[in-house]
Design goal:
This protein is an alpha/beta fold. It has 2 domains: 98 residues, 3-Layer(aba) Sandwich (D-Maltodextrin-Binding Protein, domain 2); 78 residues, 3-Layer(aba) Sandwich (D-Maltodextrin-Binding Protein, domain 2). Helix content is 41%, strand content 16%. The radius of gyration is 19 Å and the shape is elongated.
């Protein structure tokens, strides 16, 4: 078993203990025998579904149910509402969720994503960041992708319009010319590039 898989299993065991304790303290009627994990569909956190699909949790007698989310914002809303016990999410939506709900806790840092990109339509006339001036940039607001584009624009003092686009609608928005460019995380980033 590789080191990263061992880490996932150890994190899952620790998270199970935390989730069971939290559930016992709140008195909810959730299934304490199953750890419900929110998974933001992103290769950065692929350890969760890979371990589940490979039966690694079963091998350790850990019952895990994985629920997919298209963004950390959605996953964090689910954990705050008690719909999942623990979730993956990027730093920006997690920080915002912690401010809104101090009862939430960060129990681990499983990924560092350094592949943020701004993807522009081929016909939008965008080849540098400054070309985004006056353009519409689609991004799921409140996410790490929105923070990335906001920071990039502010650094060069560029005025562009940020448009709320759900991750699942990114390809449609850019391919139908609803926006000139997008700032998005994987796997939607690769899909936008291909479109």
């Amino acid at each position: 078993m590789t080191t990263s898989l061992r880490r996932v299993l150890l994190a899952a065991v620790a998270a199970t203990a935390i989730a069971v304790s939290a559930t016992a303290c709140t008195g909810t009627d959730t299934d304490v025998d199953t750890l419900t994990v929110g998974f933001v569909v992103d290769p950065s956190w692929a350890q969760i579904p890979v371990a589940a699909d490979a039966g690694l949790f079963d091998d350790q007698d850990i019952n895990v149910k994985v629920i997919n989310f298209s963004s950390g914002v959605e996953a964090l809303q689910a954990v705050a509402a008690g719909q999942v016990d623990i979730t993956t999410a990027a730093d920006v939506p997690t920080s915002a969720a912690l401010v809104r709900n101090p009862a939430l806790r960060v129990v681990g840092d499983g990924s560092r994503w350094e592949g943020s990109k701004i993807v522009a339509r081929r016909d939008a006339g965008v080849s540098t960041i400054t070309d985004l001036a006056g353009k519409k940039v689609g991004t799921p607001l409140g996410t790490s992708a929105a923070y990335y584009i906001s920071n990039a624009l502010a650094t060069d003092n560029i005025d562009a319009e940020l448009v709320q686009v759900a991750p699942s609608a990114i390809v449609t928005a850019i391919s139908q010319s609803n926006v000139d460019a997008v700032s998005i995380f994987q796997p939607y980033q690769a899909q936008a590039i291909e479109a």
